[in-house]
Amino acid sequence: MKFKNILFVALILLGFGANAQQPAYLPQFKFFKLDGKPFSNVNVNQKKKSLFILFDCTCEHCQREATELNKAYNKFKDVNIYMVTLDESISIQKFFGTYAPGLNLKPNVVVLQDKNRIFIPTFLPTKYPAMYLYAPNGKLLVFGDGDGGIKKIMKSIG
After folding, report:
1. CA 94, CA 52: separation in Å to the nearest integer?
2. 66 to each of 14, 25, 83, 120, how far by Cα in Å?
3. DSSP 8-state secondary structure symbol assigned to residue 133
4. Which of 24, 43, 71, 129 is the most exposed place for a label (fewest CB within 10 A)?
5. pLDDT at res. 5
6. For 71-106, how does the pLDDT look when each residue is reduced to its tens digit (9 = 90+)?
7. Do the beta carbons of residue 27 and residue 122 sit within 8 Å?
8. Closest Cα to residue 129, out of 152, 105, 110, 109?
């Protein structure tokens, strides 16, 4: 199963190439909470900035960035944080338990599964982890990916 996810991601990224540009506004999407309930644009709290993070539980960069986000959480308390993955629930729980204990339980953090595999063709990430900070009106403020993305995002949250 994991091989299929990796192959899917590789094919999508190769198809878009390095020149793909992230959408200027928050695209339409439908992901799923860990309890199976759908979560879409209408569920996003539009009163504050929103940070979307695409991560993979086995990605070392994602693990480091999740640890960094957890350490710097106080700076993100006033930001909606939506962590999106293609992984299964058991892997997600292990990921948070190991690399960012308690982060997934914070009131402004929502963990989402991309069961329909729409994040990559919709948001156009270039590598893991991919981070998108949106203004309350849905305009993209900052895009970061790979190592150092959380530090880049922190500079823009004020």
Report:
1. 20
2. 26, 24, 10, 19
3. E
4. 24
5. 52
6. 999 999 999 999 999 999 999 999 999 999 999 999
7. yes
8. 152
